[in-house]
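Narrative of activities, Objective 1.

The group set out to show that a structural description can be obtained from nothing but a protein's sequence at a throughput compatible with the screening campaign. Below is one input-output pair from the validation batch, recorded exactly as produced.
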Amino acid sequence: MRRRQAKIEFKNKMQMWIKFSMISGTDENIEDFEGKSIISFKAAGEDITMELDLRGMNREDGLEMLERYLVKASGRHFDEVRIIHGKGTLALKAAVENYLRKSRLVKSFRGGKFGEGDYGVTLVELKK
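Output recorded for this entry:
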């Protein structure tokens, strides 16, 4: 253990050391996995989840928010994110998919399946 740092191990076997001051979250252990404490945490500062909800936004505002979100999600090394654009007229969905096709941050994307949000969501795999 490094002084004043925590070792973070991700599901994809990636590891990194991070200062305690950069972590906020709960003190309670969620589970004990192979003798290691697993706790819930998030990076201190701006919150970002693995899901972006664009429902009700116009095309221009939605795409602006999508662009900022993908940069942040990529910077946090997310593998996959979920974009909720809604089912409505599908104009926002078409704009989102067109943007994703051109984005250098996106490896692939697909529409949601039954139980994932159907055609009201798009699942995006980010480049590493």
